[in-house]
Amino acid sequence: MKYWLQIDKDGRPCHSLPKLLAIWLLMSGSVHAQEESLLRYTARPLVWENFRGSVPDPKPVQMNAATRTSIRISFRYRTLARSNRIYLEVTEVSVFAVFLRDKSWVDGRVNKRLLDHEQGHFDNAHIFALKAQKKFDEVLKGRKKIRVSGTSNSKVMKLREAEIDKILQPFVRELAEEDVRYDQVTNHGRRMDVQAEERKVHARLLKELTGDASQE
After folding, report:
1. Which one, of 176, 179, 40, 172, lies nearest residue 96 by Cα?
2. Tens digits of per-residue pLDDT, 61-70?
3. Which of 131, 121, 102 is nearest to 45 (CA)?
């Protein structure tokens, strides 16, 4: 079962039912608001209505739209307390790409070509999320796994975050570099021949990583 463990300030699990209920209600509202601003990657393509962010002032030269994405994770773990020490093992990691509605913007003249270019950025995010997922799967199935231990819950959680980040961050950095390269070689989608080739590459990578022939 996937769960969140609420830790009190002194490092001990918080078991007070009223406090937990208040935390759950607070988190529920926060999660709902966050979900409204995020669009998880699916096979459904982007539409201009997804772009709800404010246009920057001054607006970047030669840009009529911008796509902001992020790679997110959720995970499961188990813990064991023994001899004044806490042992934690991550048992499952799910990596996925999201489109940031409130940070992605559109302004001025737009068309299907530009929308397809922006879709390319979202496809890139999904590609690197899939690559990261593959890496996590390899680690969790291998001998090393993701295991940490410490003398307090807070220390163990920090070590867990560090181990996960160590695996995830290279893919986040590569995505940022690829987004810059993609914009440069296509001139933000204006070089239609290069844009078409880049989109073919996206389709091929998506097919290879998902095994979905419909991506071609």
Report:
1. 40
2. 888 999 999 9
3. 121
